[in-house]
Amino acid sequence: MTLSASNAAAVERDAAAPLLKVENLAVEFGPVEKPLRVVDGVGFSIPAGGALGIVGESGSGKSITSLAIMGLIPSPPGRIVSGRVEFEGVDLLGLPRSRMPDIRGRDIAMIFQEPMSSLNPVMTIGDQIGEAIKLHEETTREERRARVIELLKLVGMPDPAKRIGAFPHQFSGGMRQRVMIAMAVACNPRLLIADEPTTALDVTIQAQVLELMKEVRRRLNTAVLLISHDLGVVADIADRVVVMYAGRVVEDGDVRAIFKRPGHPYTRGLLQSVPRLDDDRRRLYQIPGAVPLPGTVKAGCPFYARCPDRIDKCAKAMPPMFTLAPGQSAACWVSAGATS
Q: Beta strands of 282-336 (E only): which ranges?
C-alpha cells in the first residue's frame, strides 16, 4: 500500500492500528568506533486524530526523535542504528531516502521552533505556502493563490489577501508562527509534528497558537506530536504524554493520570517546577544537577545522580518500563516497589 491521506485508504486499514508507531528507536552521533547514543530505545504510538506530547529538559532527545521520524537526521555525523518508525503500517526507515520528500509535507508535516530561521527571508509568505502546495499537488497559480488565502484565514491571519505579498520580516513572531502552521497544514497532513512551537512567544500569543493548533486538529482530524519542555503547554493539547530523559522514555501515560499521579521522580520534579497560582513559594522548585551528557552514564538509571528517591539498585541496573496503572508505565525501580 502506498502512503496516502485519502479517507478511502484509511477505512480499509485496521481501525485499531496506530497512525504512527515508533519502536526501539536508537540514534547515534560521532564516529562508528566511539559513538554517542542520544536516543536509546524510544517507543510510542499515536492514533489517527490523536495528540501525544513529548516532554523533557534540553538534551533529553526530544527533537532528535522528531527529526528521526521525518528522516532529517544529518548523516554524517548522525545515524539511526535500530528501531522502526511505522506510518500507516509502512516502516519509514526502510524506505529509500528519495521517497521521504514525497511524504514530508503531504503525509507528515513539521512546525519548527523558530519560524524566522525556517522561513525564506527573500520570498513572500504567499509564495512559500504556495510552493508547499505546488510540490505535492497539481494546481494552477490561481488555485494556489485562493488556497493560500483560505489557509491564512484558517490560521487567523488578518486581511490575508493583502498579506500574501508580505515578507517574513514584516510579521511579528506570533504571525510568523501562524504562517508556519498554514504551510504545515497546506496539504492536509495526517500527522503534524510541532517542535517547541511556542518557545519564542509571549504568553498571550502562545495561548493563541495553542488554540489554533487545537482548531486545526478538530477541523482536519490531524494527529499531533507536540514536543515541549513545558508540561503546561502539553496538558493543553495532548491526550497522552511521553516523558524523556537522557535519550530514554522514563514515563508514558494518559495526560490526566500523569498530572495527578506521576510515577517517575523526574516527572514529579518537572511538575513541581511549574508555577502555580495557589503556590506562595518565593522560589520555584529546581531539579538539582543537569541532564548527563551522552555516553557518560555507563550503568544504572540515568536519573540516579539527581533523584531524591534513589536506592542502591538504581546505580547498578537500568530499570525497564513497569506498568503502574492501566495505561501508565514508568522506568523506576522505586515506583515499581523495589526497596534496596
A: 322-325, 328-330
Virtual torsion, Cα 205, 208, 214, 219, nearest 10 deg: -130
Q: What angle do CA 69, 81, 79 make, to 5 degrees?
A: 65
Q: Where are the beta strands (DSSP E) in the chain?
A: 20-29, 36-46, 51-55, 78-87, 90-91, 108-111, 191-195, 223-228, 240-245, 248-254, 322-325, 328-330
CB atoms within 10 A of CB 205: 17
Residue given cell 492536509 in the structure block: 188
- In eight-state DSSP terms, residue 93 is G
Nearest CA among 170, 188, 190 for reference residue 126: 170
Calpha distance 175→205 (Å, rounded): 9
Distance CA 250, CA 273 (A): 18
Residue 17: what residue type?
Answer: A
Q: Give pLDDT tens digits for 233-254.
A: 898 899 999 999 999 999 999 9
- Distances in whole angstroms, Cα of residue 213 to Cα of each of 178, 187, 206, 237, 265: 10, 15, 11, 8, 30
Helices (H) and strands (E) in the chain, counts: 12, 12
Q: How far is CA 87 from the centre of its chain?
A: 15
Phi-psi region of 169 (alpha: psi -120 to 50; beta: other; left: phi over 0): alpha
CB 257 within 8 A of CB 323: no
Under DSSP, the state recorded for 97 is G
Query: In the β-sheet with 90-91, what is the strand arrangement from edge to edge?
Result: 36-46, 20-29, 78-87, 90-91
Per-residue cell: 212:
489554533
Q: pLDDT digit string (tens) for 89-128? A: 999 999 988 888 889 888 999 988 777 778 899 999 999 9
